[in-house]
Write a structure and sequence with these properties.
This protein is 44% helix and 13% strand. It has 16 helices and nine strands. A nine-stranded mixed β-sheet has the order 3-2-1-4-5-9-8-7-6, with helices on both faces.
C-alpha cells in the first residue's frame, strides 16, 4: 500500500518535472488548487477575479508553496464553518483533496499549515470580510431596508482565549481573578447590517484599561458609516458627544436613553402623548478629547424622545411624519437581532473560546470567523430572495450545516452544469429550514440543565498537579 509522504519541505515545488515544463505545470496546479481550495470554500460568493485582486492588493502571494496565501485562507474559512475546527482536520482534508486531484500529497503534520496561517496577511482577511458584506448589502431587496435606508446595528461582546503570557499582556484577564486562575478576555465591538446580517466592521481590544469601553470603540468606527444610514444601539452609546458626531456625519440613530440622564421639562417641546423634542447642552470637555474635536461639536443638541413602555428612546428622526412613535419603538426592537447574531457566531460557530495563542493570530481567528459568518449570511440572502422571505426567518444553524455539507461536493463536481444544479439544491436546502415568526417572544436568561458538579481551581494548574503528585508519593 502506498504511503502519503510526510517529509516534503514547505517551499519545495509541488511536482518533479524537467525544468522546461516545471513552471507551466506548477502554474496549472496553482489554478487547480485555487479553484478547488478557495472559490468553493467561499461558497461562490466572491467572484474569482475579485478575489485574485484582493489577494494582490493586500499582500497575499501565489508563490509556489505547499500552502499559498489564497489556499491557506480557504482552509482557514473551512475550519470555522465546519463543526470540527481542528488544524489536523484541515490538513487531513487538504491531503485528501490533493490526492483526489492527482497532485503530490502533503504531509500530515500541522506545522506547515500553522506557519502558513501566521504568514496570512490580516488585511487580506479584513478586506474579504468587507467585500462579502458589500456584496450582500448590494443584493438586498427593497423590503430589507427601512424606508429605502440601510439599518446598522452595533454592540459589544467578549471572547476568551488560551492562558499564555503574550495574550495576558495584550488582553488581560478580569481583575477579580487571581493570576493563573483566569483566561485572557478580549472585547469585540461589531457593526452588523440589519438587512443582510453581515458584519461590516469591528474593533478588538482589551476589556481593561483606558479607552477600552464600547462607546470609545464606536469612535474608531465612525468613518465606516455612510450618510443616510440608521444606527440602532443600546444605552451604552447614548453620550452627547457620540450622538452629536453621528448627526454631523448625516447618520440617523435610534438609541435607548441612559437611565441616569435627567431632562429639564421646561426645555421640552411636546409632540404627542409619548414623545417630545428635548435639548441637551454640551458637557465639559473630557480629558481624552482634543480641543479641535470639542470645538467642532455643537453647543446644544436637539433630539426626539419617544417613551415606549418603560423605555426612553432618543432619535435624530424628529419629523413625526417621517416616522411615528410606534415605528420608532418597533425599529428599536430590531436592535435585539445583533444579540442573536453574536449568539450565532459565538455558540453555533464556536467563537466564544478562541484557540490561537498569540495576539496576531487571535485577531486573524476573529476575522476568519467573521468571514465564514458573512459567507453563510450572503448565501442565506440568496436563498431567501426567490421565496420572498426576510433573511431573519431562515435558520443560521441549518444554513451552516448545509454549507459545510455542500462544500465538499462542490469541489468534486467538474461539470459546470452539475455545479450549478448542486448550488441550486444548496439554496433550496437553506430556504427549507425556517424560524417561526414569534413576535414579542420572552424567554428567561437562565438555563435549566445543571452543569456537572466539578471543583474549581483555586491555585494555578501546575501547583495543583504538584499537590496530587505529593499525595500519591505518601
Amino acid at each position: 500500500m502506498s504511503k502519503a509522504r510526510t517529509d516534503i519541505p514547505e517551499d519545495q515545488p509541488e511536482c518533479r518535472l524537467p525544468k522546461k515544463r516545471l513552471c507551466a505545470s506548477v502554474e496549472q496546479q496553482q489554478r487547480l488548487l485555487l479553484r478547488a481550495s478557495v472559490y468553493d470554500k467561499l461558497l461562490d460568493v466572491v467572484p474569482p477575479e475579485r478575489f485574485d485582486t484582493l489577494v494582490a492588493e493586500h499582500g497575499g502571494t501565489l508563490r509556489t508553496r505547499l500552502f499559498p496565501s489564497a489556499v491557506t485562507l480557504g482552509l482557514f474559512v473551512e475550519q470555522v464553518i465546519n463543526v470540527d475546527d481542528a488544524c489536523q482536520d484541515a490538513v487531513g482534508r487538504y491531503l485528501s483533496q490533493r490526492l483526489a486531484m492527482g497532485l503530490t500529497p502533503c504531509g500530515l503534520s500541522t506545522g506547515a499549515y500553522c506557519k502558513a496561517r501566521q504568514r496570512l496577511p490580516l488585511p487580506l482577511l479584513e478586506a474579504c470580510v468587507r467585500e462579502v458584506a458589500d456584496i450582500a448589502s448590494a443584493a438586498l431587496p427593497a423590503a430589507a431596508c427601512w424606508r429605502g435606508r440601510e439599518v446598522k446595528l452595533i454592540d459589544g461582546t467578549t471572547v476568551s482565549m488560551p492562558d499564555t503570557p503574550a495574550l495576558q499582556t495584550r488582553f488581560p484577564q478580569s481583575g477579580a481573578q487571581q493570576p493563573g486562575l483566569g483566561f485572557p478576555v478580549a472585547r469585540i465591538v461589531g457593526v452588523i447590517s440589519l438587512g443582510s446580517g453581515c458584519v461590516s466592521d469591528w474593533t478588538v481590544c482589551a476589556c481593561r484599561g483606558e479607552g477600552t469601553g464600547e462607546a470609545q470603540q464606536l469612535w474608531r468606527l465612525l468613518d465606516t458609516f455612510q450618510p443616510g444610514e440608521v444606527l440602532l444601539a443600546d444605552r451604552a452609546y447614548s453620550s452627547y458627544f457620540l450622538l452629536a458626531a453621528l448627526q454631523q456625519r448625516g447618520i440617523d440613530f435610534v438609541i435607548r436613553e441612559h437611565a441616569c440622564r435627567k431632562n429639564d421639562p421646561a426645555r421640552n417641546h411636546v409632540l404627542g402623548p409619548n414623545e417630545s423634542t428635548i435639548t441637551w447642552d454640551r458637557p465639559k470637555q473630557p480629558e481624552w478629547m482634543d480641543d479641535a474635536d470639542y470645538a467642532a461639536l455643537p453647543q446644544t443638541l436637539s433630539v426626539r424622545e419617544v417613551r415606549d413602555g418603560n423605555r426612553r428612546l432618543v432619535t435624530s428622526l424628529r419629523d413625526i411624519q417621517q416616522a411615528s412613535a410606534e415605528e420608532i419603538g418597533w425599529l428599536y426592537t430590531q436592535r435585539w437581532q445583533i444579540e442573536l447574531d453574536f449568539r450565532a457566531i459565538k455558540c453555533v460557530m464556536q467563537m466564544d473560546i478562541l484557540r490561537c495563542k498569540t495576539p496576531d493570530m487571535v485577531c486573524k481567528e476573529i476575522a476568519a470567523h467573521w468571514l465564514g459568518y458573512n459567507l453563510i449570511r450572503a448565501v442565506m440572502g440568496e436563498a431567501a430572495k426567490p421565496e420572498g422571505l426576510p433573511l431573519r426567518r431562515l435558520s443560521f444553524a441549518a444554513a451552516r450545516r448545509a454549507s459545510a455539507q455542500f462544500q465538499e461536493n462542490l469541489r468534486q463536481l467538474a461539470s459546470e452544469a452539475r455545479r450549478t444544479q448542486a448550488r441550486f439544491v444548496l439554496l433550496q436546502s437553506i430556504a427549507h429550514w425556517r424560524v417561526p415568526d414569534r413576535p414579542g417572544r420572552i424567554e428567561p436568561r437562565a438555563i435549566k440543565r445543571r452543569p456537572k458538579p466539578r471543583a474549581l481551581l483555586t491555585v494555578p494548574r501546575h501547583e495543583a498537579r504538584a499537590r496530587i503528585r505529593a499525595e500519591q508519593q505518601r
